[in-house]
Specification:
heterodimer, A: 105 residues, alpha+beta, two-stranded antiparallel sheet, two-stranded antiparallel ribbon, 4 helices, 21% helix, elongated, B: alpha/beta, Rossmann fold, seven-stranded mixed sheet, 41% helix, globular
């Protein structure tokens, strides 16, 4: 198993900091950056997909029935989905103390 | 055997790049570097050189294209000057941090404002701490030789840092000199094909140029710096190797009539040869004057410099650049190299030859004599400018 990044010494660094194992961004949890989260109201959703197109982290996916799902592992809570949604289907809600703790895990 | 030809120095650099069989050239024309890339694009267009010549919209793009090309394992060359080097600035750091063996010919030029296309060292001094190997030429032969050497050095697996070959704008780039152009077989025997250790390859994907959070950035920078400081013995060995192949020996620091000299004039770049004439004139008058020329500027050759100036009473250090708000670049470096020495020479820091102004041999005599006086009296100001009216 590869040494976790935070335990590597300077001698463990590959020349030019080349990372030989691809897919690091997939494992990296950007969801723990957020201080607020989008709350989705399915009743208001018209399945237009504008949130999916604007999400800068591709954290929103369109499901088979046309409604959307937010992947909280990657969602940084930027609020662009809420800003762009025509019908106000997303509301940005500040994370509670326990949710912030949870997100850090 | 090589052939001795009368050739403009810029064209000799282009010949060296061609003989090195460069794969990719990405550059933007800028005076006084233009003839180098102009000649290379002509060579590519005429089918004399099998390379990609990438025309770009700016120097920032030129060096960015070089990053990709070098990362793919292609032998990569660029050339720039003055404002162009400044426009490249952020990418200059990226090339060295990613350990990409790019070779750059840098036609040293003054910086705006006021606009000046003429030569001095202001441009390279703004990138002196970027982690590139930086070497200075004094003649056209140097420029040809050190361009070849730069590929060998940059691509050596014990080095893997980009190399900047500095040649003074106009005073070198635009003069015609007799230059030995080595033949292809000799260059092929000297310079093995580039074998970049982890090239971009879709069959084995890797991440390059990724981001680094606080928990790893310091480790990465230390590993880079230890590697860079550690290139000195390899670079020394590679200069010896060049001499074995071609019979011309270059050193990190060169000396001229320095052994018994009480005063040493310390120079870097094309003016070094003019300064040697002044040294001869003063020697003819019985004065114990000699010369030290710094050839390798980064990594700084501390040991060689200390050895070269050990016995001198005075050092007169000539800079062709101002480091605004402090003392001039070469003098600062030399002072810090000598600070912990028990026996230190007295230093006079003089700035001259800015923006392409000539320094004639008789003016070098004046500089040396003025420098001796300053050194003996103790320099009060960070530096003195020579030859400024008023």
């Amino acid at each position: 198993m590869e040494t976790p990044m935070a335990e590597k010494t300077w001698k463990d660094i590959e020349t030019g900091f080349v990372v030989e194992t691809p897919g690091g961004a997939r494992a990296y949890r950007t969801g723990d950056w957020r201080s607020q989260k989008p709350v989705y109201d399915k009743e208001r959703c018209v399945k237009c997909g504008v949130c999916y197109m604007f999400c800068p982290d591709a954290a929103i996916r369109i499901m088979e029935d046309g409604y959307v799902d937010v992947n909280e592992y990657y969602c940084k809570g930027c609020g662009i989905c809420a800003r762009e949604c025509w019908t106000g289907a997303f509301t940005m809600v500040p994370l509670s103390g326990s949710e912030k703790k949870e997100a850090k895990k | 055997m090589g052939k001795r030809e009368g050739l403009e120095v810029s064209l000799a650099v282009a010949e060296a790049v061609k003989l090195a069989r460069a794969d990719v050239i990405a550059a933007y024309p800028i005076t006084p570097q233009t003839h180098i890339v102009e000649k290379l694009s002509e060579m590519v267009a005429e089918g004399e050189l099998d390379a990609e010549s990438i025309t770009v919209e700016s120097e920032h793009s030129a060096l960015s294209a070089c990053l990709g090309s070098a990362a793919a394992g292609a032998r990569t060359f660029t050339a720039t000057s003055g404002q162009g080097l400044e426009l490249m600035h952020e990418v200059v750091y990226i090339a060295s941090s990613m350990r990409l063996p790019i070779v750059m010919a840098e036609a040293n030029r003054a910086l705006s404002a006021p606009l000046s296309v003429w030569g001095d060292h202001s441009d390279v001094m703004a990138v002196r701490d970027t982690g590139w190997v930086q070497i200075f030429c004094e003649s056209g032969q140097d420029a040809f030789d050190l361009t070849l050497w730069a590929f060998r050095a940059a691509e050596d697996k014990r080095v893997l840092f980009p190399v900047m070959v500095n040649l003074d704008g106009f005073h070198l780039t635009h003069v015609v000199e007799p230059i030995i152009i080595e033949d292809q077989a000799a260059v092929d025997a000297y310079l093995p094909p580039n074998d970049f250790p982890v090239p971009l390859d879709p069959r084995k994907p890797v991440n390059m140029g990724t981001f680094a959070p606080p928990h790893i950035y310091s480790e990465i920078k230390k590993s880079q710096e230890v590697a860079f400081q550690g290139t000195r013995p390899v670079l020394r060995e590679l200069l010896d190797d060049f001499a074995k192949h071609f019979g011309r020996k270059y050193n990190f620091v060169e000396t001229y009539k320095a052994d018994d000299a009480e005063t040493l004039i310390l120079t870097m770049g094309s003016y070094s040869q003019t300064a040697s004439v002044a040294v001869d004139e003063l020697r003819a008058k019985g004065r114990k004057v000699g010369q030290v020329r710094i050839r390798l500027w980064r990594p700084f050759p501390f040991d060689e410099l200390r050895a070269a100036v050990r016995n001198a009473k005075r050092l007169v250090i000539l800079d062709r650049a101002i480091a605004s708000g402090t003392s001039s670049p070469v003098a600062t470096e030399v002072r810090s190299a000598l600070y912990n020495e028990e026996k230190r020479s007295k230093i006079a820091s003089i700035v001259a030859g800015l923006g392409g102004r000539d320094i004639l041999p008789e003016q070098f005599v004046e500089i040396i004599e003025r420098g001796e006086k300053i050194a003996d009296e103790g320099q009060k100001e960070p530096f003195e400018m020579y030859g400024v009216r008023g």
